[in-house]
Specification:
Strand order of the largest sheet: 4-5-13-10-11-12
Distance between the termini: 75 Å
Bound molecules: pyridoxal-5'-phosphate, zinc ion
Low-confidence stretches: none
Mean pLDDT: 96
Length: 416
Amino acid sequence: MSKVIGLRCRECGESYPKEPIHVCEFCFGPLEVAYNWEEIRESVSRDSIEAGPRTMWRYVDLLPIDGEPTVGLYAGYTPLFKAEQLGRILGHSDLWVKNDSVNHPTLSFKDRVVAVALTKAKEFGYDTVACASTGNLANSVAAHAAQAGLRAVIFIPSDLGPSKVLGTLVYGATVVAVDGNYDEVNRLCSEAAGKYRWAFVNINIRPFYGDGSKTYGYEIAEQLGWRAPKHIVVPVGGASLITKIYKGLNELHDLGIIEKPETRMYGAQASGCAPVSTTVKEGHEVIRPVKPDTIDKSIAIGNPADGYYALSTITKSGGWAEDVSDEELVEDGIKLLACAEGVFTETAGGVTVAVTKKLIEQGRIPKDETTVIAVTGQGLKTTEAVAERLPSVLHTKPNLASLNEVLSGLVAGAAV
Ligand SMILES: *Cc1c(COP(=O)(O)O)cnc(C)c1O
Ligand SMILES: [Zn+2]
């Protein structure tokens, strides 16, 4: 018997075979992967995981593929480090950063989901993969498709930043810019998925794709010495990542690998696109879709596919959600993390750091409890967000007199 039984409706529980499908025929609920936990329990332990490769595939027995991984073999197992200096600035004594801004090969956590999705797409026999993307998924699908010898057709909103467009085209992918926001791109792709026999990673093979994000949660627990932190702050776009981190931690507990997680999950959004955090703060149960208006394109999703599940994860775990302005995400997020820890994250990471600052100031995150900030993407991809808000470069002639003049008053003790 295989470790993956099939798919199951998240709402009504109806079972389905392992196929590239994502919606329940009976209630239109989303499908998720159903695992054979009895079998998995027998083979998975701390030791078996630690004996695996130093990549996300050390958790292969907890991922929804049938054979060996064939795509994205080096993704994951990114650094988790204690952010001493950031902690000092924010008055927090146990602050950590899980740094997927250096994930292999396209520098965001999306390499985790794509490694699983494209391995699965190959198992299903597809020769073309596609996706609706806010940028990082585009980069990752294009790169992995190139490596896997698959054709890639990538759909993006037409106002996407230049680095993310270039960082997709370079891999030889076909890029289609849609005149509309991400939610419109996604709707078009849902229709196209019914017409073209392509593996749309975040549509028809979404149940498999989503589970790649569980590895972000597994790694946090393992890297903390096999324990779940008390708080995790996560950027929320389509809202899959936040639910899967929580799912991953609880699976480790169900397998007897860690103690029961008492982890509170916090959603981080930009105020210009905050459907989830607005709903949490107003105490509502239904998410009202919004029209995105923020420089944080990577999580600018006005109608998040997993919004409802993110709400329930946040509420059930005792967490909260917050949002920050574009100025805050740059000043209290990107620049703060860069100057305090030497890590340059993109806009989504800026949102997450700035929201963490806010939650600590609000007293929602106590100052001495283990807290992990999910830094999910790379700053060099969104330089336009910070370019106008940095000090200017100093200019000197190539002689010491000129240098001395330029530096005078700027760097104390520079001239001797
Ligand atoms: C996609 C993305 C997110 C959001 O993940 P969801 O699962 O869509 O909520 C966060 N950060 C970065 C850098 C992303 O690319
Ligand atoms: Zn159903």
